[in-house]
Amino acid sequence: MADDKTNAAxxxxxxxxxxxxxLAVWAFVSYGCAILFRPLLAGxxxxxxxxxxxxxxxxxxxxxxxxxxxxAWKMNxxxxxxxxxx
Amino acid sequence: MSQFAxxxxxxxxxxALYIGIAIWARAGSTKDFYVAGGGVHPITNGMxxxxxxxxxxxFISMAxxxxxxxxxxxxxxxxxxxxxxxxxMLLAPYxxxxxxxxxxxxxxxxxxxxxxxxxxxxxxxxASVTYVIGQMTGAGVAxxxxxxxxxxxxxxxAALIVFLYAVxxxxxxxxxxxxxxxxxxxxxxxxxxxxxAFQLTGNPIPMFGMFSTHTESGLPLLAxxxxxxxxxxxxxxxxxVDNKLNMVLxxxxxxxxxxxxxxxxxxxxTVPKVADARWSAGWxxxxxxxxxxxxxxxxxxxxxxxxxxxxxxxAGQVENYEEAAQNxxxxxxxxxxxxxxEETGLISFNDxxxxxxxxxxxxxxxxxxxxxxxxxxxxxxxxxxxxxxEIANLPxxxxxxxxxxxxxxxxxxxxxxxLAISSAISHDLIKTMINPKISEKGEMLAARISMGGAIxxxxxxxxxxxxxxxxxxxxxxGIAGASLFPALMMGIFSKRMNNSGAIAGMLAxxxxxxxxxxxxxxxxxxxxxxxxxxxxxxxxxxxxxLSFGAVGAMINFAVAFAVSRxxxxxxxxxxxxxxxxxxxxGAGMAIxx
Lengths: 86, 593
Description:
The complex is a heterodimer.
Chain A: H1 2-36, E1 45-46, E2 49-50, H2 51-81
Antiparallel strand pairs in A: 1-2
Chain B: H1 3-24, H2 30-35, H3 42-53, H4 56-69, H5 74-98, H6 103-110, H7 114-146, H8 151-201, H9 206-209, H10 221-231, H11 244-260, H12 262-265, H13 274-292, H14 295-310, H15 321-324, H16 336-344, E1 347-349, E2 377-379, H17 383-391, H18 396-434, H19 440-463, H20 472-493, H21 499-521, H22 548-566, H23 572-582
Antiparallel strand pairs in B: 1-2
Helix pairs in contact in B: 1-8, 1-18, 3-8, 3-13, 4-14, 4-17, 4-18, 5-11, 5-13, 5-20, 5-23, 6-7, 7-8, 7-18, 7-19, 7-20, 8-14, 8-18, 8-19, 10-14, 11-20, 11-22, 14-17, 17-18, 18-19, 20-21, 20-22, 21-22
């Protein structure tokens, strides 16, 4: 029982760590690249405008998709590793 | 065949399809009615979620918003998609594991309090009702433009169709009609966009065309667009925004609001497993992105098309924009699509300087040296998508498709919202709080009656839209983001969060957000009752009332945290409940209780 508990706690910790990592990327591309750091990225041209504009209108959405699938894939592995899947 | 007959054929065929699905997918139990039996494939659910989420506003208005606002309105693109990332990681899998039917179910059980449940029910109903008004009016507009019936008949017709498949099929009927509606709306949206992208850039994929070369001028499309709009006194399309704080908070508000809207959350209760809820969120975003990556291309290309229609000399390689601006088209020579839309009043022309030509420019700029006396062409943003096939000279069947697509977008979202409302009434209010002994049959009947009632209310509000309909979107997102989202998240991620903390947090977030919105937009949205004028100078730290949801959410978290530390920890069985939602093991189907 104690083992089950540590096991579960480890699983949850790993999940929270993974979420933190994913949300850091999530915030970096949307609030960072697309909004706050746009002036810094102004020197990188993309199709008639700059990289920040591309992130605001396409790049962040594409990153979001990758993030969710990456998270789902990682969590499936965690579920198996800790034996907590269905 | 006349255009009217073609429209009728397309819309009629799509309705026949929805009703056919409704007959096939009748709900036999409350589980069918609330969560479609709990056995929906994650990709199917992703597609249904995309249709559920993309409303008349996404389909019709999004491209217009981007066309008029350029870079500044990227907030909508990021906000309405980024919410799915937090939904997938912070809410959906755990709420699926919890395994009940509604959002108030979780809040009431987790915070062992009927007060918390009631607050959640009220938030859910207010957010969903305000949202559904826009869907009914959107469907009304689409009907009256394409089927030449009056707005009133259009709304009644929409209500009847939703009634047929939502009341009989419940979530089961809604799920499969939403899949069909997604397919209709995405095809309708993409086809004209592909043609326009190909005409302007030679690249048939709109999202790539937007960043490639404009064939006629040889310049990158966005650079060309910047040149053209700045010659007409507008801000550059790609111009940066000064108030970054507000832009960040607005995007964040839309994201947490998206993650907290109940009609989206309950879609994830329909998949068989916890892992499916995670995959399903990814698929939902893929299907949403198909439209949201096309929308900015439609917006920018439509803006350029409109400008070069009015100023033909600006289309090619331009030496001197000042000269090119001198020769706009004669009003008598305007293209057919302008004539068609003039009849609806959504485009209007007023020859202020009586030269018989159309001057379209930013009124705030002074061009009296060009002999211009004011902007003469007013174009409603909402027509861009609807008029796209005509602008690109596409055949009549594409127009019919757009009509069916716009109506599909409105109906699919309306149905999802109505289900969220009716389940909150029949399940949370009647079954859980008022009469726990109600039979399965009785609950089904109650669910169907409350669905019928909700449809009547939505129809009434669609026919008599309160004058503030446009502002209420801020209300829906504010409520969902500032009260429901933080409560749900803390219920999962903080074992120490107790009933007093959650209730205090929800109320604090809700009340602060409402006060801030009402101060600038009018008390209870009654016009002219606002305490302060809604201008950036008056906003606290430059935060617009529409962006306040994110601040409300932070207040909610802070208050809940503080109150929970000074009150008793939740009982052991609640802490065990939190443990159990964190691990997928033993989820099973959504349980009846």
